[in-house]
Design a protein that fits this description.
Structural class of chain B: alpha/beta
Shape of chain A: globular
Order of helices and strands of chain A: HHHHHHHEHHHHHEHHH
Number of strands of chain A: 2
Strand order of the largest sheet of chain A: 1-2
Distance between the termini of chain B: 36 Å
Strand content of chain A: under 5%
Number of helices of chain A: 15
Largest sheet of chain A: 2 strands, antiparallel
Strand order of the largest sheet of chain B: 6-9-10-3-11-12
Oligomer: heterodimer
Radius of gyration of chain B: 19 Å
Largest interface: A-B, 31 and 38 residues
Number of strands of chain B: 12
Order of helices and strands of chain B: EEEHEEHEHEEHHEHEHEEHH
Number of helices of chain B: 9
Strand content of chain B: 25-35%
Radius of gyration of chain A: 20 Å
Distance between the termini of chain A: 18 Å
Chain lengths: 330, 258
Protein backbone atom coordinates (compact mmCIF):
# COMPACT_ATOMS: atom_id res chain seq x y z
CA UNK A 1 0.00 0.00 0.00
CA UNK A 2 1.86 3.00 -1.30
CA UNK A 3 -0.06 5.61 0.63
CA UNK A 4 0.74 3.98 3.97
CA UNK A 5 4.48 4.11 3.59
CA UNK A 6 4.71 7.50 1.89
CA UNK A 7 5.72 10.14 4.42
CA UNK A 8 3.58 13.24 4.05
CA UNK A 9 5.39 16.59 4.19
CA UNK A 10 5.61 18.69 7.33
CA UNK A 11 2.90 21.08 6.12
CA UNK A 12 0.52 18.25 5.25
CA UNK A 13 1.10 16.65 8.64
CA UNK A 14 0.52 19.94 10.49
CA UNK A 15 -2.68 20.40 8.49
CA UNK A 16 -3.90 16.93 9.35
CA UNK A 17 -3.05 17.27 13.05
CA UNK A 18 -4.84 20.58 13.24
CA UNK A 19 -7.95 19.19 11.53
CA UNK A 20 -8.00 15.91 13.49
CA UNK A 21 -7.08 17.17 16.94
CA UNK A 22 -8.43 20.72 17.04
CA UNK A 23 -11.06 20.53 14.29
CA UNK A 24 -9.73 23.74 12.72
CA UNK A 25 -8.08 24.52 9.44
CA UNK A 26 -4.54 25.73 9.84
CA UNK A 27 -4.97 28.03 6.85
CA UNK A 28 -7.74 30.08 8.44
CA UNK A 29 -5.68 30.60 11.59
CA UNK A 30 -2.74 31.84 9.52
CA UNK A 31 -5.04 34.14 7.55
CA UNK A 32 -6.24 35.64 10.84
CA UNK A 33 -2.67 36.26 12.04
CA UNK A 34 -1.52 37.73 8.73
CA UNK A 35 -4.63 39.91 8.44
CA UNK A 36 -4.12 41.22 11.98
CA UNK A 37 -0.43 41.92 11.29
CA UNK A 38 -1.28 43.85 8.12
CA UNK A 39 -3.92 45.88 9.95
CA UNK A 40 -1.48 46.59 12.79
CA UNK A 41 1.06 47.95 10.31
CA UNK A 42 -1.52 50.00 8.41
CA UNK A 43 -3.26 51.52 11.42
CA UNK A 44 -1.66 52.71 14.68
CA UNK A 45 -4.98 52.25 16.47
CA UNK A 46 -5.40 48.57 15.64
CA UNK A 47 -3.18 47.11 18.35
CA UNK A 48 -4.85 48.42 21.49
CA UNK A 49 -6.89 46.77 24.19
CA UNK A 50 -9.88 49.00 23.55
CA UNK A 51 -9.82 48.21 19.85
CA UNK A 52 -9.46 44.51 20.63
CA UNK A 53 -12.58 44.68 22.79
CA UNK A 54 -14.26 46.62 19.97
CA UNK A 55 -13.52 43.82 17.56
CA UNK A 56 -14.89 41.24 19.98
CA UNK A 57 -17.97 43.36 20.59
CA UNK A 58 -18.61 43.73 16.87
CA UNK A 59 -17.93 40.01 16.41
CA UNK A 60 -20.32 38.91 19.18
CA UNK A 61 -23.51 39.28 17.11
CA UNK A 62 -22.04 37.80 13.94
CA UNK A 63 -20.32 35.12 16.02
CA UNK A 64 -23.58 33.87 17.53
CA UNK A 65 -25.18 33.77 14.06
CA UNK A 66 -22.10 31.95 12.72
CA UNK A 67 -22.52 29.27 15.42
CA UNK A 68 -26.06 28.70 14.15
CA UNK A 69 -24.76 28.58 10.56
CA UNK A 70 -22.14 25.98 11.55
CA UNK A 71 -24.70 23.61 13.04
CA UNK A 72 -27.17 23.93 10.18
CA UNK A 73 -24.68 23.85 7.31
CA UNK A 74 -22.76 21.05 9.05
CA UNK A 75 -25.97 19.01 9.03
CA UNK A 76 -26.30 19.49 5.29
CA UNK A 77 -28.91 22.23 5.65
CA UNK A 78 -28.99 25.95 5.10
CA UNK A 79 -30.52 28.87 7.00
CA UNK A 80 -30.73 32.06 4.97
CA UNK A 81 -33.16 33.65 7.41
CA UNK A 82 -30.57 34.26 10.17
CA UNK A 83 -30.27 38.03 9.68
CA UNK A 84 -34.00 38.63 9.27
CA UNK A 85 -34.91 36.48 12.26
CA UNK A 86 -32.33 38.40 14.27
CA UNK A 87 -34.08 41.65 13.27
CA UNK A 88 -37.50 40.21 14.11
CA UNK A 89 -36.27 39.04 17.52
CA UNK A 90 -34.91 42.46 18.52
CA UNK A 91 -38.20 44.10 17.55
CA UNK A 92 -40.21 41.42 19.38
CA UNK A 93 -38.20 41.92 22.58
CA UNK A 94 -38.41 45.70 22.42
CA UNK A 95 -42.14 45.57 21.64
CA UNK A 96 -42.85 43.25 24.57
CA UNK A 97 -40.81 45.38 26.99
CA UNK A 98 -41.68 48.88 25.77
CA UNK A 99 -45.14 48.71 24.16
CA UNK A 100 -46.53 45.99 26.41
CA UNK A 101 -44.58 47.07 29.49
CA UNK A 102 -43.43 43.57 30.39
CA UNK A 103 -40.55 43.12 32.85
CA UNK A 104 -37.01 43.03 31.42
CA UNK A 105 -36.42 39.25 31.73
CA UNK A 106 -39.64 38.67 29.77
CA UNK A 107 -38.44 41.09 27.11
CA UNK A 108 -35.11 39.27 26.83
CA UNK A 109 -36.82 35.89 26.72
CA UNK A 110 -39.19 37.20 24.03
CA UNK A 111 -36.20 37.78 21.73
CA UNK A 112 -35.04 34.18 21.97
CA UNK A 113 -38.57 32.75 21.83
CA UNK A 114 -39.40 34.77 18.71
CA UNK A 115 -36.26 33.46 17.05
CA UNK A 116 -36.95 29.88 18.12
CA UNK A 117 -40.52 30.15 16.81
CA UNK A 118 -39.30 31.27 13.38
CA UNK A 119 -36.75 28.44 13.37
CA UNK A 120 -39.44 25.95 14.43
CA UNK A 121 -41.59 26.99 11.47
CA UNK A 122 -38.57 26.56 9.18
CA UNK A 123 -37.95 23.06 10.54
CA UNK A 124 -41.58 21.98 10.23
CA UNK A 125 -41.82 23.16 6.62
CA UNK A 126 -38.54 21.52 5.65
CA UNK A 127 -39.14 18.12 7.26
CA UNK A 128 -42.91 17.74 7.04
CA UNK A 129 -43.86 19.67 3.90
CA UNK A 130 -40.64 18.66 2.09
CA UNK A 131 -39.96 22.16 0.80
CA UNK A 132 -36.18 22.54 0.28
CA UNK A 133 -34.33 24.38 3.07
CA UNK A 134 -33.05 26.93 0.57
CA UNK A 135 -36.61 27.96 -0.35
CA UNK A 136 -38.10 27.77 3.14
CA UNK A 137 -35.41 29.91 4.74
CA UNK A 138 -35.35 32.31 1.78
CA UNK A 139 -39.09 32.71 2.27
CA UNK A 140 -38.57 33.17 6.01
CA UNK A 141 -35.98 35.84 5.21
CA UNK A 142 -38.79 37.87 3.65
CA UNK A 143 -41.48 36.85 6.16
CA UNK A 144 -39.46 37.67 9.29
CA UNK A 145 -38.25 40.99 7.95
CA UNK A 146 -41.76 41.94 6.92
CA UNK A 147 -43.19 40.87 10.28
CA UNK A 148 -40.56 42.97 12.10
CA UNK A 149 -41.64 46.00 10.06
CA UNK A 150 -45.34 45.27 10.72
CA UNK A 151 -44.87 44.92 14.49
CA UNK A 152 -42.79 48.09 14.77
CA UNK A 153 -44.88 49.95 12.18
CA UNK A 154 -41.63 50.51 10.32
CA UNK A 155 -40.15 52.56 13.14
CA UNK A 156 -37.36 51.95 15.62
CA UNK A 157 -38.70 51.13 19.11
CA UNK A 158 -36.80 53.20 21.68
CA UNK A 159 -36.74 53.34 25.45
CA UNK A 160 -35.68 49.93 26.72
CA UNK A 161 -35.60 49.40 30.50
CA UNK A 162 -32.20 49.68 32.19
CA UNK A 163 -31.75 45.96 32.83
CA UNK A 164 -32.13 45.16 29.13
CA UNK A 165 -29.69 47.89 28.17
CA UNK A 166 -27.18 46.47 30.66
CA UNK A 167 -27.13 43.21 28.71
CA UNK A 168 -25.88 45.18 25.72
CA UNK A 169 -23.86 47.97 27.26
CA UNK A 170 -22.80 46.80 30.74
CA UNK A 171 -19.11 46.13 31.30
CA UNK A 172 -18.45 43.93 34.33
CA UNK A 173 -14.65 43.91 34.92
CA UNK A 174 -14.36 46.09 31.84
CA UNK A 175 -15.55 43.36 29.48
CA UNK A 176 -18.66 44.16 27.43
CA UNK A 177 -21.64 41.96 28.35
CA UNK A 178 -22.29 40.84 24.75
CA UNK A 179 -18.71 39.54 24.58
CA UNK A 180 -19.20 37.54 27.79
CA UNK A 181 -22.48 36.06 26.57
CA UNK A 182 -20.98 35.33 23.16
CA UNK A 183 -17.93 33.55 24.60
CA UNK A 184 -20.03 31.42 26.97
CA UNK A 185 -22.38 30.51 24.10
CA UNK A 186 -19.42 29.58 21.91
CA UNK A 187 -17.88 27.34 24.60
CA UNK A 188 -21.17 25.47 25.13
CA UNK A 189 -21.74 25.21 21.37
CA UNK A 190 -18.21 23.86 20.92
CA UNK A 191 -18.56 21.18 23.61
CA UNK A 192 -21.94 20.07 22.26
CA UNK A 193 -20.84 19.93 18.62
CA UNK A 194 -17.47 18.27 19.17
CA UNK A 195 -18.17 15.91 22.07
CA UNK A 196 -21.87 15.22 22.45
CA UNK A 197 -24.01 12.62 20.77
CA UNK A 198 -26.25 15.39 19.40
CA UNK A 199 -23.29 17.20 17.86
CA UNK A 200 -21.70 14.12 16.30
CA UNK A 201 -25.06 13.03 14.89
CA UNK A 202 -25.45 16.51 13.39
CA UNK A 203 -22.23 16.11 11.41
CA UNK A 204 -22.95 12.48 10.48
CA UNK A 205 -26.33 13.61 9.16
CA UNK A 206 -24.69 16.22 6.96
CA UNK A 207 -22.13 13.68 5.82
CA UNK A 208 -24.55 10.98 4.72
CA UNK A 209 -28.23 11.18 5.48
CA UNK A 210 -28.74 7.57 4.44
CA UNK A 211 -26.00 6.39 6.81
CA UNK A 212 -27.56 8.36 9.65
CA UNK A 213 -30.97 6.92 8.87
CA UNK A 214 -29.62 3.39 8.65
CA UNK A 215 -27.88 3.89 11.99
CA UNK A 216 -31.26 4.60 13.54
CA UNK A 217 -30.91 8.36 13.97
CA UNK A 218 -34.30 10.06 13.70
CA UNK A 219 -33.27 12.33 10.87
CA UNK A 220 -36.36 14.53 10.52
CA UNK A 221 -36.66 15.11 14.25
CA UNK A 222 -32.97 16.00 14.43
CA UNK A 223 -33.36 18.54 11.63
CA UNK A 224 -36.38 20.15 13.33
CA UNK A 225 -34.35 20.58 16.51
CA UNK A 226 -31.46 22.07 14.52
CA UNK A 227 -33.58 24.69 12.73
CA UNK A 228 -35.30 25.63 15.99
CA UNK A 229 -31.88 25.94 17.63
CA UNK A 230 -30.66 28.04 14.72
CA UNK A 231 -33.66 30.37 15.16
CA UNK A 232 -33.08 30.59 18.92
CA UNK A 233 -29.44 31.55 18.34
CA UNK A 234 -30.55 34.20 15.82
CA UNK A 235 -32.89 35.37 18.58
CA UNK A 236 -29.96 35.56 21.00
CA UNK A 237 -27.99 37.58 18.44
CA UNK A 238 -31.03 39.85 18.03
CA UNK A 239 -31.22 40.28 21.80
CA UNK A 240 -27.53 41.25 22.06
CA UNK A 241 -27.81 43.71 19.18
CA UNK A 242 -31.06 45.26 20.46
CA UNK A 243 -29.59 45.73 23.92
CA UNK A 244 -26.37 47.19 22.52
CA UNK A 245 -28.08 49.83 20.38
CA UNK A 246 -30.75 50.32 23.09
CA UNK A 247 -33.63 49.91 20.66
CA UNK A 248 -35.60 47.47 18.54
CA UNK A 249 -34.62 48.22 14.96
CA UNK A 250 -36.65 46.37 12.28
CA UNK A 251 -33.75 46.67 9.84
CA UNK A 252 -31.21 45.14 12.25
CA UNK A 253 -29.23 42.22 10.89
CA UNK A 254 -29.73 43.10 7.23
CA UNK A 255 -27.40 40.87 5.17
CA UNK A 256 -25.90 39.39 8.35
CA UNK A 257 -26.58 35.87 7.07
CA UNK A 258 -24.00 36.57 4.37
CA UNK A 259 -21.33 37.41 6.95
CA UNK A 260 -22.33 34.57 9.29
CA UNK A 261 -22.29 31.90 6.57
CA UNK A 262 -18.97 33.29 5.30
CA UNK A 263 -17.47 33.05 8.81
CA UNK A 264 -18.61 29.42 9.11
CA UNK A 265 -17.23 28.48 5.68
CA UNK A 266 -13.88 30.22 6.27
CA UNK A 267 -13.69 28.31 9.54
CA UNK A 268 -13.73 25.02 7.66
CA UNK A 269 -17.43 24.13 7.64
CA UNK A 270 -18.14 22.03 4.57
CA UNK A 271 -20.77 23.83 2.49
CA UNK A 272 -22.40 20.46 1.78
CA UNK A 273 -22.31 19.27 5.37
CA UNK A 274 -20.43 16.68 7.38
CA UNK A 275 -17.57 18.81 8.61
CA UNK A 276 -17.28 21.90 10.77
CA UNK A 277 -16.25 23.10 14.19
CA UNK A 278 -17.07 26.00 16.46
CA UNK A 279 -13.38 26.72 17.06
CA UNK A 280 -12.88 27.09 13.32
CA UNK A 281 -16.01 29.19 12.96
CA UNK A 282 -14.82 31.50 15.75
CA UNK A 283 -11.61 32.08 13.82
CA UNK A 284 -13.74 32.75 10.73
CA UNK A 285 -15.89 35.20 12.68
CA UNK A 286 -12.77 36.96 14.00
CA UNK A 287 -11.42 37.22 10.46
CA UNK A 288 -14.66 38.93 9.44
CA UNK A 289 -14.49 41.15 12.54
CA UNK A 290 -10.86 42.13 11.97
CA UNK A 291 -11.58 42.77 8.29
CA UNK A 292 -14.49 45.07 9.06
CA UNK A 293 -12.72 46.78 11.95
CA UNK A 294 -9.54 47.31 9.94
CA UNK A 295 -11.43 48.68 6.94
CA UNK A 296 -13.26 51.02 9.32
CA UNK A 297 -10.00 52.22 10.87
CA UNK A 298 -8.63 52.79 7.39
CA UNK A 299 -11.79 54.76 6.60
CA UNK A 300 -12.77 52.50 3.70
CA UNK A 301 -16.37 53.09 2.61
CA UNK A 302 -18.80 50.47 3.93
CA UNK A 303 -19.90 49.68 0.35
CA UNK A 304 -16.49 48.20 -0.26
CA UNK A 305 -16.77 46.16 2.95
CA UNK A 306 -19.87 44.41 1.57
CA UNK A 307 -17.92 43.63 -1.58
CA UNK A 308 -14.98 42.33 0.46
CA UNK A 309 -17.22 39.96 2.46
CA UNK A 310 -18.86 38.62 -0.68
CA UNK A 311 -15.50 38.06 -2.33
CA UNK A 312 -14.12 36.32 0.76
CA UNK A 313 -17.10 33.92 0.80
CA UNK A 314 -16.54 32.85 -2.80
CA UNK A 315 -12.78 32.57 -2.26
CA UNK A 316 -13.23 30.46 0.88
CA UNK A 317 -15.54 27.99 -0.89
CA UNK A 318 -13.17 27.85 -3.85
CA UNK A 319 -10.22 26.93 -1.60
CA UNK A 320 -12.32 24.40 0.29
CA UNK A 321 -13.49 22.66 -2.89
CA UNK A 322 -9.95 22.67 -4.24
CA UNK A 323 -8.74 20.92 -1.08
CA UNK A 324 -11.56 18.40 -1.12
CA UNK A 325 -10.89 17.48 -4.75
CA UNK A 326 -7.22 17.07 -4.03
CA UNK A 327 -7.51 14.99 -0.85
CA UNK A 328 -10.54 12.80 -1.19
CA UNK A 329 -11.38 9.66 -3.10
CA UNK A 330 -15.07 10.25 -2.62
CA UNK B 1 -35.52 -22.05 15.88
CA UNK B 2 -37.08 -19.59 13.47
CA UNK B 3 -35.49 -16.17 13.90
CA UNK B 4 -37.20 -14.09 11.25
CA UNK B 5 -40.60 -14.59 9.66
CA UNK B 6 -41.94 -12.37 6.91
CA UNK B 7 -45.42 -13.02 5.65
CA UNK B 8 -47.39 -11.30 2.93
CA UNK B 9 -45.04 -8.31 2.69
CA UNK B 10 -46.29 -5.76 0.18
CA UNK B 11 -44.65 -2.52 -0.83
CA UNK B 12 -45.36 -0.10 -3.61
CA UNK B 13 -43.88 3.25 -4.54
CA UNK B 14 -46.67 5.32 -6.03
CA UNK B 15 -48.06 3.34 -8.93
CA UNK B 16 -45.14 0.89 -8.98
CA UNK B 17 -45.80 -2.33 -7.05
CA UNK B 18 -42.44 -3.73 -6.02
CA UNK B 19 -43.36 -6.46 -3.53
CA UNK B 20 -46.58 -8.43 -3.96
CA UNK B 21 -46.79 -10.44 -0.76
CA UNK B 22 -43.42 -11.96 0.05
CA UNK B 23 -43.11 -14.84 2.52
CA UNK B 24 -39.67 -15.59 3.90
CA UNK B 25 -38.29 -17.21 7.02
CA UNK B 26 -34.76 -17.47 8.36
CA UNK B 27 -33.58 -19.76 11.15
CA UNK B 28 -30.95 -18.96 13.73
CA UNK B 29 -27.47 -19.37 12.31
CA UNK B 30 -28.84 -20.04 8.84
CA UNK B 31 -27.28 -18.51 5.75
CA UNK B 32 -29.93 -17.66 3.18
CA UNK B 33 -29.07 -16.44 -0.29
CA UNK B 34 -31.51 -13.99 -1.82
CA UNK B 35 -31.23 -13.87 -5.59
CA UNK B 36 -33.26 -12.42 -8.39
CA UNK B 37 -33.02 -10.23 -11.44
CA UNK B 38 -32.48 -6.49 -11.25
CA UNK B 39 -35.71 -4.90 -10.08
CA UNK B 40 -36.99 -8.11 -8.49
CA UNK B 41 -37.28 -6.23 -5.18
CA UNK B 42 -34.34 -7.67 -3.22
CA UNK B 43 -33.06 -4.42 -1.75
CA UNK B 44 -36.57 -3.11 -1.14
CA UNK B 45 -37.43 -6.29 0.76
CA UNK B 46 -34.31 -5.98 2.91
CA UNK B 47 -35.06 -2.35 3.67
CA UNK B 48 -38.50 -3.31 4.94
CA UNK B 49 -36.72 -5.67 7.35
CA UNK B 50 -34.33 -2.98 8.63
CA UNK B 51 -37.12 -0.42 8.82
CA UNK B 52 -35.79 2.05 6.26
CA UNK B 53 -38.99 1.37 4.31
CA UNK B 54 -42.31 0.68 5.97
CA UNK B 55 -44.18 -2.28 4.48
CA UNK B 56 -47.66 -1.45 3.15
CA UNK B 57 -49.03 -4.78 4.32
CA UNK B 58 -47.89 -8.04 5.88
CA UNK B 59 -46.09 -8.89 9.08
CA UNK B 60 -42.48 -9.15 10.20
CA UNK B 61 -41.64 -11.09 13.33
CA UNK B 62 -38.08 -11.13 14.59
CA UNK B 63 -36.99 -13.18 17.59
CA UNK B 64 -40.59 -13.34 18.81
CA UNK B 65 -41.21 -9.60 18.46
CA UNK B 66 -43.46 -7.88 15.93
CA UNK B 67 -41.00 -5.35 14.51
CA UNK B 68 -43.30 -3.71 11.97
CA UNK B 69 -44.11 -0.68 14.16
CA UNK B 70 -40.45 -0.16 15.17
CA UNK B 71 -38.09 2.41 13.65
CA UNK B 72 -34.65 1.43 12.26
CA UNK B 73 -32.90 2.28 15.53
CA UNK B 74 -35.16 0.01 17.58
CA UNK B 75 -34.73 -2.84 15.09
CA UNK B 76 -30.94 -2.53 15.35
CA UNK B 77 -31.34 -2.78 19.12
CA UNK B 78 -33.08 -6.13 18.60
CA UNK B 79 -30.13 -7.40 16.56
CA UNK B 80 -30.91 -6.70 12.89
CA UNK B 81 -27.90 -5.29 11.06
CA UNK B 82 -27.39 -4.58 7.39
CA UNK B 83 -24.32 -3.93 5.28
CA UNK B 84 -25.51 -1.78 2.41
CA UNK B 85 -24.29 -2.04 -1.13
CA UNK B 86 -23.21 1.62 -1.05
CA UNK B 87 -21.85 0.91 2.46
CA UNK B 88 -23.75 3.93 3.85
CA UNK B 89 -20.71 5.38 5.56
CA UNK B 90 -20.31 8.94 6.80
CA UNK B 91 -17.14 9.48 4.80
CA UNK B 92 -15.86 12.62 6.49
CA UNK B 93 -16.06 11.03 9.94
CA UNK B 94 -13.42 8.73 11.40
CA UNK B 95 -13.56 4.96 11.88
CA UNK B 96 -14.90 4.91 15.42
CA UNK B 97 -17.59 7.50 14.65
CA UNK B 98 -18.86 5.30 11.83
CA UNK B 99 -18.78 2.04 13.76
CA UNK B 100 -20.60 3.54 16.74
CA UNK B 101 -22.91 5.89 14.81
CA UNK B 102 -26.23 6.02 16.63
CA UNK B 103 -24.94 3.93 19.56
CA UNK B 104 -22.08 5.94 20.96
CA UNK B 105 -21.06 5.10 24.52
CA UNK B 106 -21.69 8.21 26.59
CA UNK B 107 -20.58 9.67 29.87
CA UNK B 108 -21.35 12.82 31.79
CA UNK B 109 -19.28 15.91 30.99
CA UNK B 110 -17.74 17.19 34.26
CA UNK B 111 -19.93 14.57 35.94
CA UNK B 112 -22.95 16.79 35.25
CA UNK B 113 -24.12 16.94 31.66
CA UNK B 114 -25.26 13.65 30.11
CA UNK B 115 -25.03 12.72 26.44
CA UNK B 116 -21.32 13.32 25.89
CA UNK B 117 -19.35 10.79 23.90
CA UNK B 118 -16.70 8.60 25.48
CA UNK B 119 -14.31 8.96 22.55
CA UNK B 120 -11.40 7.13 24.18
CA UNK B 121 -13.55 4.05 24.76
CA UNK B 122 -15.00 4.30 21.24
CA UNK B 123 -11.53 4.44 19.66
CA UNK B 124 -10.32 1.52 21.78
CA UNK B 125 -13.27 -0.72 20.97
CA UNK B 126 -13.22 0.27 17.29
CA UNK B 127 -9.53 -0.65 17.05
CA UNK B 128 -10.08 -4.04 18.68
CA UNK B 129 -13.04 -4.76 16.39
CA UNK B 130 -10.96 -3.96 13.30
CA UNK B 131 -8.19 -6.19 14.66
CA UNK B 132 -10.67 -9.03 15.29
CA UNK B 133 -11.67 -8.86 11.64
CA UNK B 134 -8.00 -9.31 10.80
CA UNK B 135 -7.93 -6.06 8.86
CA UNK B 136 -5.40 -3.28 8.75
CA UNK B 137 -6.35 0.37 8.44
CA UNK B 138 -3.84 3.21 8.00
CA UNK B 139 -5.20 5.03 11.04
CA UNK B 140 -8.28 4.80 13.20
CA UNK B 141 -8.48 8.62 13.36
CA UNK B 142 -8.60 9.28 9.63
CA UNK B 143 -11.79 10.07 7.78
CA UNK B 144 -13.23 6.93 6.20
CA UNK B 145 -13.44 8.62 2.77
CA UNK B 146 -9.64 8.55 2.50
CA UNK B 147 -9.60 4.72 2.63
CA UNK B 148 -9.66 2.26 -0.27
CA UNK B 149 -12.88 0.45 -1.18
CA UNK B 150 -11.89 -2.72 0.68
CA UNK B 151 -10.88 -0.77 3.78
CA UNK B 152 -14.17 1.11 3.71
CA UNK B 153 -16.02 -2.17 3.54
CA UNK B 154 -14.10 -3.38 6.58
CA UNK B 155 -15.48 -0.40 8.48
CA UNK B 156 -19.02 -1.15 7.28
CA UNK B 157 -18.67 -4.79 8.35
CA UNK B 158 -17.23 -3.79 11.72
CA UNK B 159 -20.21 -1.50 12.26
CA UNK B 160 -22.61 -4.37 11.61
CA UNK B 161 -20.81 -6.82 13.90
CA UNK B 162 -19.87 -4.68 16.91
CA UNK B 163 -23.21 -4.90 18.69
CA UNK B 164 -23.73 -8.69 18.70
CA UNK B 165 -26.30 -8.95 15.92
CA UNK B 166 -28.58 -11.95 15.51
CA UNK B 167 -29.13 -11.33 11.80
CA UNK B 168 -26.75 -9.68 9.34
CA UNK B 169 -28.08 -8.70 5.91
CA UNK B 170 -25.43 -8.23 3.26
CA UNK B 171 -26.34 -6.46 0.01
CA UNK B 172 -23.84 -7.34 -2.73
CA UNK B 173 -20.88 -7.48 -0.34
CA UNK B 174 -18.52 -8.92 -2.95
CA UNK B 175 -19.53 -6.90 -5.99
CA UNK B 176 -16.71 -4.36 -5.74
CA UNK B 177 -13.97 -6.52 -4.25
CA UNK B 178 -10.78 -8.13 -5.48
CA UNK B 179 -10.57 -11.94 -5.58
CA UNK B 180 -8.70 -12.29 -2.28
CA UNK B 181 -11.10 -9.91 -0.54
CA UNK B 182 -14.07 -11.92 -1.79
CA UNK B 183 -12.70 -15.01 -0.04
CA UNK B 184 -12.36 -12.92 3.12
CA UNK B 185 -16.05 -12.02 3.02
CA UNK B 186 -17.09 -15.62 2.36
CA UNK B 187 -14.96 -16.81 5.28
CA UNK B 188 -16.56 -14.17 7.43
CA UNK B 189 -20.05 -15.43 6.53
CA UNK B 190 -19.02 -18.98 7.51
CA UNK B 191 -17.64 -17.66 10.78
CA UNK B 192 -20.86 -15.79 11.56
CA UNK B 193 -22.83 -18.98 10.91
CA UNK B 194 -20.59 -20.93 13.27
CA UNK B 195 -21.28 -18.32 15.94
CA UNK B 196 -25.03 -18.82 15.47
CA UNK B 197 -25.59 -15.56 13.59
CA UNK B 198 -28.03 -15.72 10.68
CA UNK B 199 -27.03 -14.12 7.38
CA UNK B 200 -29.09 -13.04 4.40
CA UNK B 201 -26.79 -12.70 1.41
CA UNK B 202 -27.90 -10.76 -1.64
CA UNK B 203 -25.59 -11.36 -4.58
CA UNK B 204 -25.46 -11.55 -8.32
CA UNK B 205 -22.41 -13.79 -8.07
CA UNK B 206 -24.16 -17.15 -7.97
CA UNK B 207 -20.90 -19.00 -7.36
CA UNK B 208 -20.54 -17.15 -4.06
CA UNK B 209 -24.16 -17.82 -3.16
CA UNK B 210 -23.85 -21.55 -3.92
CA UNK B 211 -20.62 -21.72 -1.93
CA UNK B 212 -21.76 -20.34 1.43
CA UNK B 213 -25.54 -20.58 1.74
CA UNK B 214 -27.79 -23.23 3.28
CA UNK B 215 -30.80 -22.16 1.30
CA UNK B 216 -31.47 -19.99 -1.73
CA UNK B 217 -34.63 -17.93 -2.11
CA UNK B 218 -35.42 -16.63 -5.56
CA UNK B 219 -37.30 -13.37 -5.75
CA UNK B 220 -39.19 -12.89 -8.98
CA UNK B 221 -41.74 -10.21 -9.86
CA UNK B 222 -42.02 -9.21 -6.22
CA UNK B 223 -42.68 -12.71 -4.88
CA UNK B 224 -40.56 -15.41 -3.25
CA UNK B 225 -40.80 -17.65 -6.30
CA UNK B 226 -38.56 -20.52 -5.23
CA UNK B 227 -37.05 -21.88 -2.05
CA UNK B 228 -34.13 -24.20 -2.80
CA UNK B 229 -31.89 -26.15 -0.41
CA UNK B 230 -28.39 -25.29 -1.61
CA UNK B 231 -27.14 -28.85 -1.14
CA UNK B 232 -29.82 -30.19 -3.50
CA UNK B 233 -29.69 -27.59 -6.25
CA UNK B 234 -27.24 -26.37 -8.85
CA UNK B 235 -26.35 -23.40 -10.98
CA UNK B 236 -28.74 -24.20 -13.84
CA UNK B 237 -31.74 -24.66 -11.57
CA UNK B 238 -31.05 -21.37 -9.77
CA UNK B 239 -30.58 -19.52 -13.04
CA UNK B 240 -33.74 -20.99 -14.52
CA UNK B 241 -35.75 -19.94 -11.48
CA UNK B 242 -34.32 -16.43 -11.70
CA UNK B 243 -35.10 -15.90 -15.37
CA UNK B 244 -38.22 -18.05 -15.21
CA UNK B 245 -38.16 -20.03 -18.42
CA UNK B 246 -36.84 -19.17 -21.86
CA UNK B 247 -33.41 -20.14 -23.05
CA UNK B 248 -32.06 -21.52 -19.79
CA UNK B 249 -29.07 -23.48 -20.94
CA UNK B 250 -27.44 -20.46 -22.55
CA UNK B 251 -27.89 -18.35 -19.44
CA UNK B 252 -26.61 -21.14 -17.20
CA UNK B 253 -23.59 -21.70 -19.39
CA UNK B 254 -22.82 -18.02 -19.23
CA UNK B 255 -23.01 -17.98 -15.44
CA UNK B 256 -20.78 -21.03 -15.13
CA UNK B 257 -18.13 -19.39 -17.23
CA UNK B 258 -18.42 -16.12 -15.28
Amino acid sequence: MAHETAQPGLWARAQRTSVEQLHIRLESFIVLIVLSAVMAVLSPFFLSLSNFLNILLATSTIGVLAIAATYVIGSGGLDLSLGSVMGLSGVAGAYVAVNLGAPSPVGLAACILAGAAAGYVNGQLITRAFVPAFIVTLGMLGLARGLALVISDGRVIYGLPAVMVYVGQGRPLGIPMPVIIFVITAIIAHCVLAYSKFGRHTMALGDSESAARAAGIRVERHRRILYTLSGALAGLAGMLFMARINSGDPTAGLNYELTAITAAIIGGTNLFGGRGSILGTMIGALIMGVLQNGLNLLAVQSYYQQMAIGAVLILAVFIDQYQVRKESRV
Amino acid sequence: MTLLTLSGIRKSFGAVDVLHGVDLSVDRGEVVGLVGDNGAGKSTLMKTITGIYRADAGSIEFDGTDVLPLDPGARRELGIEMIYQDLSLAKQQDVASNIFLGREPTRKLFGLFPGFIDKARMDREAASMIARLGAHLPSINRSVGSFSGGQQQTVAIARALTFNPKLVIMDEPTAALAVREVQGVLDLIRRLKSEGIAVILISHRLNDVLAVTDRIVVLRHGRADANLATARTNMSEVVSRIVGGGDLSAAAMHEQRG
